[in-house]
Amino acid sequence: DVQLQASGGGLVQPGGSLRVSCAASGFTFINRAVDWFRQVPGKGSEWVSTITKNNGGRLTNYRDSVKGRFTISMNNAQDTVYLQMNSLKAEDTALYYCISGTTRGQGTEVTVSS
User: Fold this and answer.
1) Quick one: which of 22, 23, 31, 74 could link to 98 by a disulfide (CB 3.0–4.6 Å)?
2) Closest Cα partner for 92 from 40, 22, 42, 36?
3) Predicted confidence band at 62 (pLDDT cuts at 50, 70, 90)?
4) Dihedral (C-alpha) 73, 75, 79, 81: value to the nearest 10 degrees?
């Protein structure tokens, strides 16, 4: 069974940090790109970041509002992708979920509040 499991969300104060993870089961990310999206209740989803293959390495991209604050990475086993989120703001509050190909994880809640 092919699945993605997101974890690591929680409540953090503005300016704080959090790392969310996206773990694959039943497959790996060896030849796949992985995207992080986020969804705010009552609003649509927005793309946050992508990690893709690039000439034997990995290429990363970010939406403008998180550049310099968020970092996407992948473990050596290429079965888990991380999103390190620093200098968090209230507007980063959302359900964060990952997608690889046609597989979507269930998401993990991130709340930034004092």
Assistant:
1) 22
2) 40
3) very high
4) -20
**Number of C-beta neighbours around residue 35 at 10 A:** 20
- The phi and psi torsions of 43 (rounded to 5 degrees) equal -125, 170
Q: Do 68 and 85 meet the contact criterion of CB atoms below 8 Å apart? A: no
**Strand pairing report for 18-25 and 3-7:** antiparallel
Spell out where 40-100 has E strands. Answer: 45-54, 57-62, 70-74, 80-85, 94-100
Q: Residue length, the chain?
A: 114
Taking only the tens place, the pLDDT of each residue in 13-47 is 999 999 999 999 999 999 899 999 999 988 899 99
